[in-house]
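May I ask you to review the protein record following this short note?
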Amino acid sequence: MDADVIVVGAGLAGLVAVHELTAAGKKVVLVDQENAANLGGQAFWSFGGLFLVGTPEQRRLGVKDSFELAWSDWTGSAGFDRLDDEDAWAVAWARAYVEFAAGEKRSWLAGHGVTFLPTVGWAERGGLRAGGHGNSVPRFHIAWGTGTGVVEPFARSAHRAAAAGLLRFHHRHRVDELVVTGGAVTGVRGTVLADDDSPRGVASNRDAVGAFELSAQAVIVTTGGIGADHDLVRRHWPERLGRPPAHMVTGVPAYVDGRMLGIAEDAGARLVNRDRMWHYTEGLHNWDPIWPGHGIRILPGPSPLWFDALGRRLPEPCLPGYDTLGTLKHLRTTPDLAGYDHSWFILNQRIIAKEFALSGSEQNPDITAKDRRAFLRSRVLGKGAPAPVEAFKRNGADFVVAATLEELVARMNGLTDEPLLDAAAVRAQIEARDLQVAHPYGKDVQVQGIHNARRYVGDRLGRAVPPHRILDPAAGPLIGVKLHVLTRKTLGGIQTDLDSRALDRDGRPVPGLYAAGEVAGFGGGGVHGYNALEGTFLGGCLLSGRAAGRAAARQTA
């Protein structure tokens, strides 16, 4: 055989599996269709947020968290309703994940040199009911180094293993088939692609120059989801989310093509929960794109006003940072909105300076470089927005800036095929909201949310401006931002047991086949159920990749 174990996919889950295998002395082949520059996959580009429970960072900020609260939030968000079938293992994975997040996850990462910002973000605040979707408390821990920093120790481990003769890289090798012998997966077969020295993330060629076949005692599939293939996204778009958008921006590189899902199914693996997916409604066209259709997500604070394509404020819980899929559902199922693929933020300079962040390692150079002085200058002591945010405001096709609301609405109308916004109607809604900020109480739920956010010191210092009038000239100029659906994550996939063994249609392990990361729904074929709590995607790659590597190491001679 060519190795003890073949790992297909050089993203975070694959690298973690390789680390566990080589630490156990196993010989591994790592196969990936991209070049060496793309080691780390999607995770390299991420913001590096990790869902953690009961941490020192939380306690220093006065946040009281517990496994019980986190598990209540997870189950209320997941809404598992296929317990005897597609969710049977997903629930077990969810429990294991929350135990991991409340237990050894932080110390295990610290052992690999991963540390965190002192502030903790309060992402996905939810649907405004205690038992429903959302995080009750801040849990979004950002790694120093962003996603790049999370990938780094496992990439280093891979290179050390290669130098020691335990790992061989097979870049530019595209797997087209899992080899099945006597009912067991015993290898991979596929196409050698032409060399391509494109930079990380740039779409590479698919020119075939040869064929290959590799054999091993086990194969671990860690190849991600379908986010870059909009046709596949639309094919599996669930009816509950209404009409799929005709236009979307892409939040993942072009190689996130979902090919291995069908290939694993052909080898006997069962695919479950394919109608569950996670896409954002705050996407922007990247003014400096890396991959085709490159989109960037705004991570908003609580203050921007959110309007639909026809100029109406979105209803609760469709508020910035609260309920991602609830907002997507509203925009795609409201009858007079389903024909439009955009919505709007209206805010001012005071808000954008403190409350806007952009997802992605390249959009946060201070954190990615672990430059604490730059972080303090930009995020804490600085009076303006971070430089990447200002660059989008200045260069982005989705931003308009104006001194008056009437001028702003006219420019917003200039970004659509027809003028859909009425300045007087928009003004009436903003003025009604502005009347609510004179006191620390009131009936506007978004203003209530701002006051709630500012009771948390992390938001008060870095993410939430004091309530003020949007139309206050001293807070200007006014800013309009056109928002698009941004594709991101596949929440379903290959069903696996707690050892990351791929299961067949009868619920039995497919001999020799394992799956981890997004291709396995981050564990069990859908650890999130219907909703994610944010910071859970990287963590799902870590936990399931670790489980796959350890289990495969035990099962190979």
In short: Residues 404 and 456 are 33 Å apart (CA to CA). The longest strand covers residues 208-221. The chain has 18 helices and 21 strands.
